[in-house]
Amino acid sequence: MATTVRKKTSASNSMQDNVFEGISAVFAVDGGFTFTDAGVLNLLNADARLLEFPCSEDSGFSFDTGAPSIEHFKVHGLNADWVSTFTPGDTELNIEIPCHDTEIMQLVFGSNGTDITINLPTDALKEPNIASATATGKGFGAAQKSVELGLLILDDTEKRLFYIKKAKLTAQVTFDGSNKPLCVVLSGSLSDSGDGAFGILDIVTAANAGG
């Protein structure tokens, strides 16, 4: 029987066709994803809600399954390990969102927030001829707590989808007054590391009838 050799640039199945590069969009789903026994996730039903996260271009999204820690045991006279053991690495996931959209804040802080109104003296603002000034919006607790999210990441061609089934993330808000806007930063790891915890999928589309 002849040996089968698949090369990286095989004409019929090039490995260059399997490169995930760049980010077009990041979507989050509250609570993570639940697949059927057949491995199907239906996001077309009325209960499904995808919320897009605008991510910073520089280091706005990072995912790492973690480097294992290896313990080496050696004996005299051998350069190779006599035995070795390893401890699995810790997964890390970080997302930087330069936006304080109310729906994003409610999702990542796990709270609807509190309605806040602040009546301002008009001379606190530089704009002249103001009769009154009122600031309204939502306030959130500073105590951090974790939320579970499922994530969908489209590559820059929108032909491939990187998914994370379920991640446990904690939000923090950062702002230093520089040219970088106020950011919501999510940090955490996978909360489901079993089969199907993450993957890269090919997107197949069909044109609208008559389109």
Explain what you see.
This protein has one helix at residues 102-109; strands at 25-30, 51-52, 61-64, 69-73, 83-87, 92-97, 114-120, 133-139, 146-154, 160-174, 183-190, 198-202. The chain is mainly beta and 211 residues long. It has a domain at 23-64 and 84-112 and 143-202: Roll (Pnp Oxidase, Chain A), CATH 2.30.110. The strands form 3 sheets. Strands 1, 2, 3, 6, 9, 10, 11 and 12 form an 8-stranded antiparallel sheet that branches. A two-stranded antiparallel sheet has the order 4-5. The model has no long low-confidence stretch (mean pLDDT 90).
Task: State the shape.
Answer: extended
How large is the radius of gyration?
24 Å
Number of helices: 1
CATH architecture of the domain at 23-64 and 84-112 and 143-202: Roll
Distance between the termini: 49 Å
- Pattern of helices and strands: EEEEEEHEEEEEE
Mean of the pLDDT scores?
90
Query: What class, by secondary structure content?
Result: mainly beta
Low-confidence stretches: none
CATH class descriptor of the domain at 23-64 and 84-112 and 143-202: Mainly Beta
Question: What percent of residues are in strands?
Answer: 35-45%
Helix content: under 10%
Oligomeric state, counting identical vs distinct chains = single chain
Major sheet size, sense and barrel closure: 8 strands, antiparallel
**CATH topology description of the domain at 23-64 and 84-112 and 143-202:** Pnp Oxidase, Chain A
Instruction: Give the total of beta strands.
Output: 12
